[in-house]
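Got a spare moment? Tell me how you read both lines of this record:
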Amino acid sequence: MEEYLVFARNHPVLILGLVAVLGMIIWTEIGRLTRKYKQVNSAQAVQILNQEDSVVLDVREDNELRGGKIKGARHIPLGQLKNRLGELEQSKGKPVLVYCRSGNRSSYACQLMTKAGFQDVNNLAGGIMAWESANLPVSKR
């Protein structure tokens, strides 16, 4: 045990780095465990889409739509979502699938939606890139 204390005294920067990394891991895990939306893969997303009243929300920017979108998806850029949540008010009790390019921006959109009272919110992990890599169809219009 004394060797560890000697090491810590001789290498304080390494110990601070270790504490910082452990803190970030703990913070990430607490966030993952307390989030109110689900992360879903492409296969689970297809199951959500097959439900009768499901809503699909694309939060990418306008210039990202050239490559296509999931058929039937409603497009509201993430920057406008907070102000336009009223447009989705009737969908609060329905399953909602949210996606972006890679799944990062859509996770923030999912947080906004759960805070606004949406109950069944799902984030497409990997976004449209994961959807396309699973060879699932995209609509060009």
